[in-house]
Structures are given as structure tokens and as C-alpha cells.
Amino acid sequence: MDIKPPNLWQFINIQHSKILSEVFAQCELVLLVIAIVAVTGILTGVLVHRHVALVEAVTGFWSIVYTIPSLAMLVFFIGPFGLGWVPAVIALVLYGQLPIVRNTIVGLRSVEPAIMESASAMGMKRFTVLRKVQLPLAWPVIIVGMRVSCMLIFGLSAIASYVGGPGLGDYLFSGLSNLGSFNSMNQTLVGAFGITLLALIFDALFVLVKKITTAKGLRIA
Amino acid sequence: MPNVHGEEIRLEKLTKRYPNTEKDAVKEFNLTIPAGELVVFVGPSGCGKTTTMKMINRIIEPTSGKILIGGKDVTHTPAHELRRNIGYVIQQIGLFPHMKISDNVATVPNLLGWDKEKTKARVNELLHLVGLDPAEYGNRYPKQLSGGQQQRVGVARALAADPAVLLMDEPFGATDPITRVRLQKEFRALQRELKKTVVFVTHDFEEALLLGDRIAVLSEQSHVEQYGTPLEILSNPATDRVKSFVGDAAAVRMLALVGLAGIDVLPGTPATVTVPESSTLREAMEKFISGADSINIGTRGHLTFDALQDVIAKTRAAAK
After folding, report:
1. What whole-number distance in Å separates Cα of residue B93 and Cα of residue B175?
2. What is residue B20's DSSP assignment?
3. Mutate to test the interface with B, among A118, A130, A134, A218 (most CBs of B within 10 A)
4. Is there a contact between A105 and A48 (Cβ–Cβ < 8 Å)?
5. DSSP 8-state symbol, B259
6. Which of A68, B239, B245, B274 could form a disulfide with B296 if both were Cys (CB 3.0 to 4.6 A apart)?
7. What are the distances in angstroms from CA A180 to CA A5, A183, A185, A187, A191?
8. B115-B117-B123 Cα angle (round to 5)
9. What b/e string do you get for B218-245 counting C-beta neighbours within 10 Å, with b at 16 or more?
10. At a CB cut-off of 8 Å and minimum separation 6, what does B22 contact?
């Protein structure tokens, strides 16, 4: 007797609890990585932005890291860390650095000299200038860097399934590698559409967060 | 709030040499700026006048020399403490675009840890003082104000903690001519009331004449060509450089600096034309040019053209 494979909707219906748990795992992974990238990337930017030589060294370094093929990068970390979350998180954190480090530096450096001079002439100490003036003014640029990082991380998080990372990438790859077999098409589609949809939702969230967290005085045209 | 009057500024052998340069940008600059006076540094661009001014609040650190404010050596005071007692206004204004106008003005009071009520009262007082209604403008952002209004806020922000000293670097230079003249006149009136010690940098000699109690004419490396009242500089330019800066119309410009209040007049008021006693020689001269034979000076007396010429000659002689 010929058994017909389920169509996509039936497949989702049957597998919905597993799909949902992979969606959550995916979100968890991306949020964890974004959090680490944001903290380390902004900190790096803040520390180096005033010194041209350091700026060039740091952006140069992360540019090189960025050019390493993603699969190779993931595989590097299997050696020391085995399979699973750890190599996936490390690889994604490294990949996500460049946009946010670069945007933090650009944002901080592009604050008008007159504004910086006024701030110190009012008697603000260096750290107060950073906290009260420079970071709020650079924030819209920094958050765009975070958004770009986030999209990058999403793309790579699918590939991270190769090293046992969590998320919808499993569906994508097991579907692709068994193409032609029972349910493989459904798996591939769930993986591909799922990741795309999640990425779009995160992107929209960033637009919203940018709007909410940007000082009102800067939003006025 | 009580108004803190200015304190004397004394600059001794103040020198700035930038790294990897052959010459001092400012060389052994000596000047005493009396308490409560507005002194204008005027000179060609690149002469070091702005550098000199910025060394007073150490936005530019001097290479050597001394800065004394109110007799106290502040050359090595922590910079942020020094600056909180020195107002600072620059041509580019430099308001913080992400902060409301009221928060911009409150910058230094907040740094000094004033309580909220006191700060709020002071912000309102200052916005009134510079001609902006706090209710209307306090909650706006810098981008929502015109250039002239922004610079009024700049002046208010500089005065917020009632500093003894005010540094101004071409503050009205970026505004249109009509706004500029209005801001200059308003600021002159404000300064007469506040009596801060003001160092005002400009390359506009007209502005220097209008605002300065004294003018320091500077040339390369911030060399002081002449330091004196506007009248002294116009009537007796010390060097050729000062002469070229003053230009041809020195005598005419001088007329605008001398008020009619103190001059000798002829008794009686027989003339048909009257000028108020608060006018200047220039306004009196204008009446003669327009055809008057003699003019009444308020109700105090009158002047003929010959008498006016005598007055001018005496004024010039007195200034020398």
C-alpha cells in the first residue's frame, strides 16, 4: 500500500510541540548571543574609540574574523568544546562583533566636536560626558549595528545546527540531506520558513526598540 | 538669586606650544582683566586669540604660564572644578540635542548637585533673562528653536550656576546680521546688569567697539598690540597693525562711543531740533549733517556745529 506523506500543514500539526520547542531554543540562542555581543561589542567600542591606532587594530581584527567561512569557524570550536551549545554560541559571538563594534565606534566618534567641547567646558568629567552626552547621541547608530549583528547571527544560527547547536536549523539540514525521502520536503520548508519568519520578527522588534530608546530630541526631524 | 559679580583674571606668561610645531601658538601672554569688565580679544584669524581664551578654562592646557582668577592660582586646579565656575559660549552653540531646553540650561546646576526646586527656579529665571518664555520653550528641544533662540539658550546655560567669569568665542558670529545686532545689544544690556568678568573673542572690530569695556588687539602668537578702552584705541592706535585694524573711519566710529551726558554745552535751548541726553555724539552729528544749525541737548543746553567740533577735539585729546 502506498502511504502518502503529510502535507505541510499536517506536518506542522503533527510536530507542533517539537517545532515550538525548537523555535524557543532558536530564540534563546539568538538572544543569548545578542546579549553577549551587545555587552562586549559596545564595551570594546567605548574603550577604543578615542585612539585611532586601536580603532584600526580592533576593526581590522574583527574584519578578518568575519571573513572566516562560517562552517570552518564552527568546526574549529568542536575540537576544544565538543558538540552542542558552547561551540555554536562562541562562533556566533565572534561573528556578531564586527557590526556592533564598528557602529559603536562610528557613533561615538561622530558626536559633534562642539557638543563634546561644551560638555567638558560645563565641567563634566570624562565618564559623565560619555554617559550623559556621547552614548545617548550615538545610540541610534549603535542600535543599527545591533540590528545588523542580529540578522547575521540568525543566518549563522541555522548553520550552527551542524555542530549540534539548537534551533530550527536541524529541520533544514536533516530535510536537505534526506531530500526525496518521506517528510524531508516538509522538514526543509519548516526550517527555512521558520528561521526567516523569526528573523523578520526580530528585525521588526529592533525597529521598535530603536524608536522607543532613541531620545526624543533626536527623533525630531 | 544673588548675582555673583566678576572676579579679576590675571594671565601670566601664558604659553601654548603644540607638539611637533616650530613656534608657540601663544607666546608669553600677559594680561590683567579687571573684575566685572568685558574684554574683547580681537585680531586676524589664526592669531591665537581663541587658543588664549580656551586656556583660561583649560579646554586647551597651557604649556607654561599661570592663570589666576580672583587672585587664586587655578593653573593646576582639577579642570572640572574650575570649569563649573566659568560660563562658556561658543559660535557653534553646542547645545545637547537630546535634552530639553530646560535640561540644557540645568546642566551645571545638576553637576553641582543643586536640589530640584532651586534648579527649576533658576532655569525659569534665566530663560526669562534671555527673553524666552520658560512655559513655551522649556520643554522644547534644541532643533525646534531658531539659531538666534539657540544662542540665547547657550547664554542662559553658561550663566546657570552664576559663574564669576564668562568666556565667549564669537558667540553671535553664526547668526544673521539682524539677529546678531539684536543679540549684541541685549547682551550688552545684560552684562551691564550682571557685571561678570567676560572674555569675548571676535574678529569683528565693530562688535569689539560695541561690547568691549576694553579691547586687546592681538597679532600672531597672541602678541598684544594694544590693550585699552575702545576710545583709546580709536583715538590713539599704538601700532600700524592696530591702525590697519581700526581702518579709516576711526574718527566717525569714535562719535558713537561718546555720550552727550557728560559734555560741555552752551546755555539755553534755542534750537528747533532736540536730541535726548542719552544720545551719542554720532546722533548729534547726524542732525547737523541733515541740516540743523544747532541742536538742543535734552533740556540741559544746546550745541552749535563749532561747539560740537570742540567737544570732539577735547574728547580725542583726553583719550590720548
Report:
1. 11
2. T
3. A118
4. yes
5. B
6. B274
7. 11, 8, 7, 11, 16
8. 100
9. bbbbbbbbbbbebbbbbbebeeebbbeb
10. none
Cβ contacts (< 8 Å) between A120 and chain B: which residues?
59, 79-80, 83
CB contact under 8 A, B92 and A112: yes
Query: Nearest CB to B143: which of A117, A120, A220?
Result: A220
Q: Tell me the three cell numbers of residue B305.
A: 556745529
DSSP lists the bridge partners of residue B302 as B266, B296
pLDDT in tens, B57-72: 999 999 999 999 999 9
A122 contacts chain B (CB < 8 A): yes
pLDDT of residue B261: 84
A66 grid coordinates? 568575519
**Residue B160, φ and ψ in degrees, nearest 5:** -55, -45
What's the grid cell of residue A177? 540531506
Residue A1 has pLDDT above 70, yes or no: no
User: CB of A98 within 8 A of CB of A153?
Assistant: no
Strands (E), B84-158: 86-90
What CA–CA distances, in Å, run from B227 to B214, B223, B231, B233, B234? 7, 11, 11, 8, 12
What pLDDT does B194 receive?
Answer: 92
Do A30 and A202 touch, CB atoms closer than 8 A? Answer: yes
